[in-house]
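Protocol step 4 of 5: obtain the predicted structure for the target chain.
Materials: sequence only (see below). No template structures provided, no constraints applied. The aim of this step is simply to have a reference model before the mutagenesis design in step 5. Sequence pasted as it appears in the construct record:
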Amino acid sequence: MESSTSSPKVQLVVPEGPAAESTNVQGVPREIPAPAQPKVDEQVPEEPGYEIKENEGALVKIPSPVTSTDTQYTDTDASDEEENAEQEGGSSGESSGVGLRRPAEGERDGADKRVRIEPSPVRAEVAHGMVSEIGKRRYMEDAVAVVPGFIEDLDFYAVYDGHGGDGVAKLCKERMHVLLSELVTAEEWDGDWSRTLITCFKMIDKEVLAFKELKFVGSTAVVVIVTAEEIIVANCGDSRAVLSSNGVAVPLSQDQKPERPDERARIEAAGGKVIYRDGDRILGLLDISRTIGDYYLKPFVIPEPEITIRTRTNRDEFLIVATDGLWNSLSSKEACNLVRQCFTGVAPPNSAFLGSSRTAEEAAALLVEQTYLHGAEDNTSVVVVKLKNLDSDVES
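Step 4 output (structure tokens):
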């Protein structure tokens, strides 16, 4: 049944925890390792980065809490944020990640090539919230995966925007983080996040090929892995990840569309054509140039993601990971402004989110609400990840 012309009611979709993520897909059990628990002993030695507390008569060693300095929102350019990062020693680029030990040069050719995943002595506390709304479409083709601690203390967030049906988006939701976990915890893993994520996306794409009914179905995918030291993003399509750092909206992904000169050149080099039909489209059909699935448009459409690895700093405030239902209505700066207003209790006029500071889930709901006030009709899925408190009264 078609939706009415009035703004649809925003429905909060609250994840039900790891138990809800344990369903089987194609007969493959999904096992998500739980975060390691602190060891309890009668005599617990002191260790940097840990605190010793008494719990029910026993001494427990737990990670020390992270302290960060709150910042005020400023209207500055992303270039200013990057300049500040260089001055303070923080920078974007590849690194090993928290809890990951890269093997030394001599170890690579030895018998033990395993990269150990170890609990970080300092675990950054984050909070997340997610909302997925059908809008005025007849079918819901978005899918969202939120898996805290999917590998030890690494958190996984992803949105998938399906087209031609929801089959590929659902498969990505069920399989992407499981397969990535298997690759990262394998004996031969060398700590290369970029290569591993590209391999993971290509393997998921091959799994789609096994289903003939999905030949004309595809999905975008933006995957975000948050550690205590890094934010790792893999993007395929036009869903986006944006970071608010010291009041500046910092894009962590770039849309992959046929209108991009480099993407157009790649498509034409493969023998394809970009035809204008209500925008640039591959063969006049698809307006995104990298997806999972869409086998009827291979090899012009590829599943290889673009990777961003950014070192975290104490200026980083929150992440927004969302499908294009949000970004077609709001700019990155507008979206970050709204989330900050929600966290500090200053909601925009005519909004249901007035009053005291709000949670990450309510911030995600506010973004969806605003997209429909702007006249959006598409499916919209949003994940907000709070990396630190913006106000001392906001609960984490």
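Step 4 remarks: Residues 1-45, 55-80, 82-124, 392-396 have pLDDT under 50 and may be disordered. The longest helix spans residues 167-184.
Proceed to step 5.
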